[in-house]
């Protein structure tokens, strides 16, 4: 890193660098090396929310492999090292410049994205952000409160693909699959998907009238109940192992998936594709839905316009409008569309506490960051969780 190696001293030998210059060169080299590793090999990531519990816990520290699916070439290359999208100690000051933009390109990797991989990706609805909003989805806020109300209440900013928030979920369906959810059970291409052993789902535990033993529940790692109905129906967030154990309790009559739409006045507009005229899907009863594949063509009609609208306009950069009952794409009448990218369906293992594809739809391939690989550190209320260190992620 000696940028002045050609300069000679009086004896004809290269000048010796000062201590300060040696430290500066070492620092520059370290920044370049770390940036290249972070961009092309692996990146550290922290679990901020419980959406993947108990597969991944809050404050699990991960290594995310960039080489598994192939490193993504930065689309916004002018950026501060080691900072994602915002300068430290600020809320909206950009840590990048959009003076140079590169098209999406990915180097070869070891594999394609597979069903049931745990994947890190940029939040698809993160192109527009309302600063300081408790809801991470600007578009959900607009659907619920109206565009003008959101504009008047928050500072609105926009972000390029690779500078959107990082999310981590499990890929439940890959490009070309058809997904359906029936009473909480996910079906892919007509087959029930495997249930991760550490995943959680809310269940209604019906008893003979008595409450469950609190000490015994604590031994099983069960907290709650979250809700109580009819004095003998209790809602708990349970793993498959918990469900099997509770079914053996003498006072337990039945354990069934909790379906929120059965207990409250459900807002169907919250669920993708946000078209209640054609779809009244819920978290637990959803689809069937085709996951778009590069090169595949779909017919466009009123019933699927809401499903593919954002793909055509936002993710693949076309203009789309409906005029006189006809679809106009890039100024030309069209009754079908051919996809330019592969798409994926991502869901959290903590099914009732996850903002995932059921609410905002597909994940485009250019949003994929990498594959969750290894937990290298983890800590909770009682300190370091030693049993989780250097554990692979499945």
From TrEMBL:
The active site is at residues 51, 169. Keywords: Hydrolase, Membrane, Protease, Transmembrane, Transmembrane helix. It comes from the Bacteria. The chain crosses the membrane at residues 23-42. InterPro entries: LexA/Signal_pep-like_sf, Pept_S26A_signal_pept_1, Pept_S26A_signal_pept_1_CS, Peptidase_S26. Its EC number is 3.4.21.89. The keyword Nucleotide-binding does not apply. It is a single-pass type II membrane protein. Gene3D superfamilies: Umud Fragment, subunit A. Pfam families: Peptidase_S26 (PF10502). GO terms for cellular component: membrane. Belongs to the peptidase S26 family. NCBIfam families: sigpep_I_bact. This is Signal peptidase I. The lineage of its organism: Bacteria, Pseudomonadati, Bacteroidota, Chitinophagia, Chitinophagales.
């Amino acid at each position: 890193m000696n940028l002045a190696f050609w300069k000679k001293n009086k004896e004809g030998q290269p000048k010796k660098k000062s201590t300060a210059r040696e430290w500066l060169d070492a620092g520059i080299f370290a920044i370049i090396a770390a940036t290249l590793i972070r961009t092309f090999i692996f990146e550290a990531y922290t679990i901020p929310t419980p959406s993947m519990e108990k597969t991944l816990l809050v404050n699990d520290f991960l290594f995310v492999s960039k080489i598994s699916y192939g490193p993504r070439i930065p689309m916004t290359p002018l950026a501060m090292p080691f900072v994602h999208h915002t300068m430290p100690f600020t809320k909206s000051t950009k840590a990048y410049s959009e003076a140079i933009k590169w098209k999406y390109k990915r180097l070869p990797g070891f594999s394609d994205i597979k069903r049931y991989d745990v994947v890190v990706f940029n939040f698809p609805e993160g192109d527009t952000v309302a600063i300081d909003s408790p809801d991470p989805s600007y578009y959900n806020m607009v659907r619920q409160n109206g565009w003008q109300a959101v504009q008047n209440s928050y500072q609105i900013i926009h972000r390029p693909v690779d500078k959107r928030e990082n999310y981590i979920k499990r890929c439940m369906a890959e490009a070309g699959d058809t997904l359906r959810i029936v009473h909480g059970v996910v079906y892919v291409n007509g087959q029930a998907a495997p249930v991760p052993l550490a995943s959680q789902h809310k269940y209604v535990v019906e008893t003979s009238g008595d409450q469950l033993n609190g000490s015994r529940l604590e031994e099983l790692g069960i907290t709650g109940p979250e809700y109580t109905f009819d004095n003998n129906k209790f809602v708990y967030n349970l793993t498959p192992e918990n469900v099997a154990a509770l079914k053996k309790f003498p006072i337990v009559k039945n354990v069934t998936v909790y379906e929120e739409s059965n207990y409250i006045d459900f807002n169907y507009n919250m669920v993708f594709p946000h078209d209640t005229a054609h779809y009244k899907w819920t978290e637990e009863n959803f689809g069937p839905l085709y996951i778009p594949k590069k090169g595949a063509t779909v017919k466009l009609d009123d019933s699927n316009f809401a499903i593919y609208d954002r793909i055509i306009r936002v993710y693949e950069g076309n203009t789309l409008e409906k005029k006189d009952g006809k679809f106009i794409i890039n100024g030309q009448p069209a009754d079908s569309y051919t996809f330019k990218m592969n798409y994926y369906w991502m869901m959290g293992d903590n099914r009732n506490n996850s903002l995932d594809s059921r609410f905002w739809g597909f994940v485009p391939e250019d949003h994929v960051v990498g594959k969750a690989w290894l937990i290298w550190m983890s800590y909770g209320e009682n300190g370091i969780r030693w049993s989780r260190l250097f554990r692979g992620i499945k």
